[in-house]
TrEMBL record:
Name this polypeptide is given: MSMEG_0570 family protein
Source organism per UniProt: Methylobacterium pseudosasicola
C-alpha cells in the first residue's frame, strides 16, 4: 500500500509534515490550495479514515498511525485562530 506525506502550513505559519498510509489524501486536498480551517479538518478526517479502512481491508486492522495523525491535526486546529486558512504545500510519496 503506497504511503505518503503531505506538508501543510497552519494559519499561524507553523509547518507540519503529515502522514497517510494511502494516497487517498490526493482525492481531498491539492498542492498549493488553501482551505478554511474547519474544511481542512473535515477533509483530512475523511481521507485519513478512508486510508485507515484500506489498511483494515488489506491487513485486518485499522491504521493507528493514520488515526494518530488525525488526532494531531484536530488538536493543532483547536489552537488556531478561527477563520484561518491551512495551505497544502507539497505531497511526498
Amino acid at each position: 500500500m503506497p504511503e505518503m506525506h503531505f506538508h501543510i502550513r497552519w494559519p499561524d505559519g507553523r509547518r507540519e509534515a503529515c502522514y497517510s498510509p494511502s494516497l487517498v489524501v490526493k482525492d481531498f486536498l491539492a498542492v498549493g490550495e488553501s482551505y478554511a480551517l474547519d474544511d481542512f479538518v473535515e477533509k483530512t478526517r475523511t481521507a485519513l479514515t478512508i486510508a485507515s479502512e484500506r489498511v483494515r481491508e488489506k491487513y485486518g486492522f485499522a491504521c493507528s498511525s493514520a488515526m494518530a495523525q488525525l488526532a494531531r491535526i484536530e488538536t493543532a486546529a483547536k489552537r488556531q485562530a478561527p477563520g484561518g486558512l491551512v495551505t497544502v504545500e507539497t505531497f511526498e510519496s
